[in-house]
User: Fold this.
Amino acid sequence: MRKIAVIFPGIGYTKDSSLLYYAAKLAQQSGYEPVDVDLTEDACNEEKLKDRNFLIHTIDTYLHVTEKVFTEQKINAEDELLFISGSMGTIIATAYARKKGFSVKHICFSPLDLIGNFIAEESGILFYGDKNPYVDYTKIETVAKKKKLETHKISGGDHLLETGNVKKDLKNLQEIMDRISDMIADVNIYSIKVPNMDGTITDLSAYKEKVLLVVNTATGCGFTPQYEALEKIYREYKEKGLRILDFPCDQFGSQAHDTISEIHSFCTARYDISFDQFAKIDVNGKNEIELYTYLKKKQGFHGFGDSLDANYMRKKLAKEVPGYEETTDIKWNFTKFLINRQGEVIARFEPTEDMDLVEAAVKEAME
Assistant:
């Protein structure tokens, strides 16, 4: 069986554009053989993007082009297929996969909403900008939700996912390629295992289709009373599928120095917690568990907000950890990550953020 990565260019996306180029390079490094589908210049006319009739009536033309490439390259259903596409190419890639009945992993940049007619459920990831003048990103989000597809929205991103800010674009490019790398390697939240309090291991696949709130905690911290709010949120939404995963951590001010048994007794006695509590772990550094490596890669640090606690944390860390804002590291106890039912890490909340905002995000993710 061969591993084939097929690149489908589109409007604004040549095979050498940065997104398609680097995605193809990552695939190649993972053993995929790259193959290009050369769409005609007619498919790369921006005016055509607004003409839905053009898109529909020319699909067959480009499917014939694709069929010719697959025949010449002797690509068939027995091969392991990865389709990397952009813009108009996303329609051709998804339509061809459906027509042939191929099992394909899709990486789609600036997808057009017509892919909703073709793309298979849980078959890939969509990257899109919310300032794209040619595509209604809200329709793309509807497609993603219906087809259970992973998504990555670039705030301020145009059709090429660029924002006009070079540093931000480079950071976005790195995040995009990190997500693609994880997809190609089949790394996701459900492939990760975590340690239980009793020394056994839990496979996070046990939480599939649940909304997860993951939090690193400490019993001697100024934020420890957040346990009460967490338990309230859990009891409100657990019947709808919410699970809270609590990981005590002693890396911040040595505020969780007790044994895990003592920590658990404190939490149940003082705050009557009923959500899942795991072993005491590291969230930063050489001994950090895989879960936190993954979470930090998916959601970096975005700031502490504007509260009094936020001002205190900024001053404290600026003095103790110069440059702290440039890393994805966990900054303090009670940092929270929200994961939706599709396994996407959709939000990160610093301990200084209002718990009402956390609850609002949980409620939205439950819908």
The mean pLDDT is 92.
